[in-house]
Specification:
- With 137 residues, the chain is mainly alpha-helical.
- Helix content is 61%, strand content 9%.
- The strands form 2 sheets. Strands 1-4 form a two-stranded antiparallel sheet.
Length: 137
């Protein structure tokens, strides 16, 4: 069966109710080994943070040259609730990035140089928000 045929079969199964979780639960156990179990345990130890980054019971691991990619779930808050704060943060970040020394050789270096300023701006926004909240604004 070629790739096109496999995708057609999967599409038929999706139409019948197949979910991504079904696929993971079928695929992940087939690839488990002691070495992959160790990789998953290490990923959980280093990165799992309940409510922020979590791993399912069945995890897919994809090996790479110098490590592994381990499937996990990252929580993202509903942006509609914080849309105004997000816009203000983006505006501050753009302003700070523009103030960063343009002679810096790479964009990554400029971003790294701006990071402490962005963190300070975010802290000020949090303080302002708390102040408004206390005042009932």
């Amino acid at each position: 069966m070629n790739r096109t045929e496999r995708i057609a079969v999967l599409n038929s199964l999706f139409d019948a109710g197949l979910t991504f979780a079904d696929c993971v639960n079928a695929y992940a156990p087939r690839q488990q080994s002691e070495s992959k179990a160790a990789v998953i345990a290490r990923a959980r130890e280093l990165h799992e943070d309940e409510g922020k980054l979590e791993f399912d019971d069945h995890v897919i691991v994809s090996g790479a040259e110098r490590g592994n990619y381990v499937m996990a779930w990252v929580w993202v808050d509903d942006v509609s609730a914080d849309d105004q704060d997000d816009k203000r943060t983006r505006t501050n970040f753009d302003r700070i990035l523009a103030e960063t020394d343009p002679r810096t050789s790479t964009a990554a270096a400029q971003i790294a140089a701006a990071a402490p300023l962005v963190a300070a701006a975010a802290a000020r926004e949090d303080e302002d928000h708390e102040s408004y909240t206390e005042k009932g604004v």
